Amino acid sequence: MRIIQEPEIYIVGRQQLDAAEVRRFLEQSETEWQTDAERGSELIVELAGRVCYLSFGDKQFRKTNADYVGNLIHQGHGSVLEHAVWDLLITGVSRSLTHELVRHRAGTGISQLSQRYVDESTADFVEPTIIAMDPELHTTWLRAVETAHQAYKDLVEALAIRVERAHPDLSRTQRRKMAREAARSVLPNATETKLLFSANARALRWILTLRGSEGAEPEIRKLAVKLCRIMRTEAPTLFADFEIVRLPDGTEGVRAGHAKV
Q1: Could you report the per-residue pLDDT of 236-256, keeping only the tens digit for each?
Q2: How many domains is the chain built from?
Q3: Range of the structural domain that residue 181 is part of
């Protein structure tokens, strides 16, 4: 059993443009498009904006990708941001955090570790920073987590025997699932989980704005800060107006230059 205090984010999927198909569209439309963007996410957003306003040809050469997309964001034209998508593998977060994160369904796709099928007898746990800072509170928290974890393991063992006797016709996988899905009821919100979280740029901007604010829960705010740093590097044109700020309590938060895009 490990005690975790920091989340981890892996970018496992990125936006990619099919250049040949874009050229075919431009040729059939008897127009042209030049851009200085190299990242697929920034290319697709610019393309979406130019389709909306038919701003191809000679007049489009006046703007860089940063200028063009920056103007879309300034105008609040958020729908074009929905075409840029990332696949994020997130680990080292608690079930408490994902209870909040999964509320962001618009513009996202979520696949989370299943406690019904996965054995949590080797589970890790996420400790809140405010508890970890105090030795006495840490001891109390750790004792509670260890007690709950042991109860889970005892229940799984006993339930496995009970289910096998009561339902010998079921497959081994089904019997295990029945034991684990009942035993998981004693596991705390601190139990570490993993999920594949796919989201478009507009959804990510809203998550950063809401979950990175001063009033956000500390663990998910920590995730938002880390995600903000990643996205500012991953797609600076789409996230340049976000900044990491120091909050009154000494922790970090996120501030958006254009909150509702």
Answers
A1: 999 999 999 999 999 999 999
A2: 2
A3: 132-186
